[in-house]
TrEMBL record:
<dbReference type="Pfam" id="PF18705">
    <property type="entry name" value="DUF5643"/>
</dbReference>
<dbReference type="InterPro" id="IPR025436">
    <property type="entry name" value="DUF4179"/>
</dbReference>
<feature type="domain" description="DUF4179">
    <location>
        <begin position="41"/>
        <end position="127"/>
    </location>
</feature>
<protein>
    <recommendedName>
        <fullName>DUF4179 domain-containing protein</fullName>
    </recommendedName>
</protein>
<dbReference type="InterPro" id="IPR040680">
    <property type="entry name" value="DUF5643"/>
</dbReference>
<dbReference type="Pfam" id="PF13786">
    <property type="entry name" value="DUF4179"/>
</dbReference>
<feature type="domain" description="DUF5643">
    <location>
        <begin position="225"/>
        <end position="329"/>
    </location>
</feature>
Amino acid sequence: MNKEKFNHSIDNIDIPLEKLVAREKTAMLQAKKRKKMGRTTRHSLLIACGLCMTLLGSGFVSTGMAEALSNIPLIGPIYAKFSDIASDKIQQDQLTTEIEKQDSQNGLTMTVKEAVYDGGRLIVTVEYTGQKKLSLTEETVGINDLTINGQSVKPAIASTGQDAIDSKTIIEHHQLTLSNHNEYGDKIEVAVHGENLFGYKGKWNVAFPLEKVDGVIHEFYPKVKTKTTDKDYAITVDKVTFSPLSTRIDLTIDYPAKMDENDTWPWFEFAVVDDKGQVYDRLKLQAGMAGDYGHHMVLVLPPMDEMPHSFIIKPAEINNKGYREEIKELELVVPLNKEK
């Protein structure tokens, strides 16, 4: 399929965003009670902060994955369509590296189209083409795995999403926010593995080197903290990182130790407001966890050409009726005036 036809077919994908948001919130409430939330991409279904949600062939994907699929200029409209957190920046600055490496087995071809990496996020786009019809049903979709330097990755945020372009073509998008910025350095070896995919039997593997995209990285260590009057809960902003693919906020969440033991630790929902009043939530914010039990949380906003002077972080809880209730005691102003 040529690029023009490919992009035209992508324009016809319909994504029910309101349903996606509602479904993700419900799943997040359930997932917060998992002691050790899995953070692996060894599924062809959405995985975001340890959640697995079934992707429907109509383009039903999570908001996190939706944001992941919006990243690549070579494949154009699909990334804007799925609203990746860095979609505008990637397309504007042509940040991705064209890979075009493939592996063909038993009538199915896996082609890594392009990828981009900035030390904190990795995005990889894969195309599958088959000699016969490809299926996105759960029984036949198979499993896949993305590795860095030959090892499985334990990211803070990850998603894998798929959608059918036509009956014999499926596009797949991987996005990972790493647990720690620059933990793999400037040059990495990425590999996409697949097994028994879309009704085809076999194993596929495409490996390729990838260098960190050019761009300035700014790091701030504000170390500001707030806590509730009963001192049961506290939030510390450890680091804010501005990089080509995201604006990242690393938080430490403190809560009573017994919550680790009985698995009732809190998963707060966050909104972030900059000094100009711009609100980042829903599709403009991803949240994930590095490590276990939600002590090290990571918030990811879109990349910013102009850095704000401060952020306001607004944590909230979801009540038993599914509504967001802000926790004013834990609201936190984060000055960005001491770059390191």
